[in-house]
Amino acid sequence: MAFDSYLKLAASLAVASFGGLACLVLYRVFFHPLSKIPGPKLAAISRLYDFYYDCVLGGKFVFKIEELHKQYGPIVRIGPNEVHIHDPDFFDEFYTVTSRLDKDAWYYAFVGSKDAGFGTANVDLHRARRKAMSRFFAASAISNLESSSREKVSQLCLRLRSMREAGKPVNLSNAFRCLAADSVTNYCMPKAFNLLDSIDFADDYNRQARVISHIAAWHRHIPIIIPIFMRMPRWAVAATSTEGAVMAFDFQTDLARQAADAVHAEKRSDRSVLDGIISSDAIPESDKSVDRITQEARTLVGAGSETTGNTLETITFHVLANPDKLDRLKEELAQVVETSKGSSDPLSNYSTLQHLPYLTAVINEGLRIACSVSGRLARVNHRQAYTYGTYLLPPGTVISMNIRSNHTFEPVYPEPLTYNPERWLVEGEELKRLEKYFVPFGRGGRSCIGKELALMNLYLTIAAFFHHFDAELFETTRKNIEIEHDYFSPFPAVDSKGLRVMLK
Ligand code: HEM
Ligand SMILES: *[C@@H]1O[C@H](CO)[C@@H](O)[C@H](O)[C@H]1NC(C)=O
Ligand SMILES: *[C@@H]1O[C@H](CO)[C@@H](O)[C@H](O)[C@H]1NC(C)=O
Ligand SMILES: *[C@@H]1O[C@H](CO)[C@@H](O)[C@H](O)[C@H]1NC(C)=O
Q: 10 in a domain, yes or no?
């Protein structure tokens, strides 16, 4: 072909693709089944809208969505095929066990683990994969969970005692995240991380958790980022990244190795969750590949650490910032120790702690206000249409809600941004009303599998910390712990110093 024919070909290709693009834009704005749903046209046209807020600005789309709701009302089209609903009374059945919802594969791609229980989009495939590990998290597993959790809490207290002697401020944001990661890995992996052993509570590692989470948001839009990172040789990571990133890389490599060891073990066992998944007959052998088991390992650690760490940090901050609540909590704890003199340590007995009304209120209010899963919960029903008001949402529409909408619902939680455990000290119908909108662990078939382990860690840690230590906030304000960026988990501003206390 002569040069000018190339030119002509290129020109007609350009015209064609421009034309195609223009048609797509027109279709999405005017003819798409969701075209009547209010919302910004740019969001209707392209995912780039989401990309700008979540990647370029860094985890800011949740806040933009809140703004859009103020402007457009309770339903907003936030993507070409996605609506967001801000209405706690919507679809009582929507997130329940019976409704057969898929997760939106595109949204959940951020974890780079589409075959893990957490990341599996398809409802039926998910059910089997979840079943393969559910026995480890069920009520019957409580005593195993408890001993694992108790061990880690006493280790934390030991560390804090030695730091108290040193008389320096302690970064509890780090300490609590170490506790959470150790507890999850101790229970779920053949070998625990043991971050609590590190001198500075794994400062670098915890710092990079946020970097990785930001990268994950990019991965959602450009889904080759995580595989590239994981396939980089270690020297290349070391040469281009921070110490924390290298540590993260090493932990990921370690998880993959543990997964491989477990898959290739001579005898199948139930000694950790990971081993248990492999020995389960709920899933076919094809679901026991090293790759998939690695994904389970990665998501269990991811789902369990940041969430529990963030909730502990939030509770501790608010209790320390409110001396009257601090006194009341300490009094309740002292009293239970007093009345059960002689028997083994009541503060390490979960069933005893669960019956303490004020401690329970302190923890519930912390879970409510922390919203430790801050991302939207994106769901799709491929079989059924929904109506919302006058709008029809055809099958396949991605429907998202946010836990925060529920937890700040003013008619139920007056002054929703105030930490007020006393609001939970009610009974009967009044309590039921509070609980109806209280969904820190989600709801339905995709709710948190680690809920019991998480609650146990919260009860045991908060009780031990406030009974054994007198602490004072050190240069910490609410801004240091509150969400500024959403990477599915909430993160404060980049320059936040976290929760720091002086132990006395
Ligand atoms: C305070 C702590 C925690 C909170 C607030 C929390 C919250 C949640 C929420 C809201 C979901 C649903 C997410 C979604 O719909 O995409 C979830 C799922 C999940 N969580 Fe947690 N979580 C916590 C601790 C843990 C722990 C300790 C584990 C440890 C093993 C864990 C493991 C998981 C897993 C595996 C899923 C996916 C479940 C599935 O899809 O079958 N979480 N969590
Ligand atoms: C919020 O609460 C309502 C009422 O209990 C429930 O139907 C809805 O699913 C909840 N939303 C989320 C995101 O869990
Ligand atoms: C916790 O306390 C209850 C009584 O309050 C007792 O029955 C139970 O055995 C204790 N559990 C452990 C693990 O010590
Ligand atoms: C404390 O830990 C948090 C979270 O890991 C971190 O963001 C913060 O910078 C740390 N604070 C200091 C003073 O190093």
A: no
| CA–CA dist 313, 297 (Å, integer) | 24
CA pair distance 299, 98, nearest whole angstrom: 25
Which bound ligand lies closest to the C-alpha atom of 495?
4
For the domain that residue 79 is a member of, what is the CATH number?
1.10.630.10
Residue 195 in any domain: the answer is yes
- Tally of structural domains, the chain: 1
Could you write out the DSSP letters of every residue in 125-174? HHHHHHHHHHTTTSGGGHHHHHHHHHHHHHHHHHHHHHHHHHT--EEHHH
* Residue of 178, 199, 201, 207 with the most ligand 4 atoms within 8 Å of its CB, for mutation: 207
| pTM of the entire predicted model | 0.94
d(CA 110, CA 298): 13
Cβ 171 under 6 angstroms from ligand 3:
no
Residue whose Cα lies nearest atom 13 of ligand 4: it is 497
Domain that holds residue 415: 32-503
> In this predicted model, what pLDDT tens digit does every residue of 350-396 receive, in sequence order?
999 999 999 999 999 999 999 999 999 999 999 888 888 899 999 99
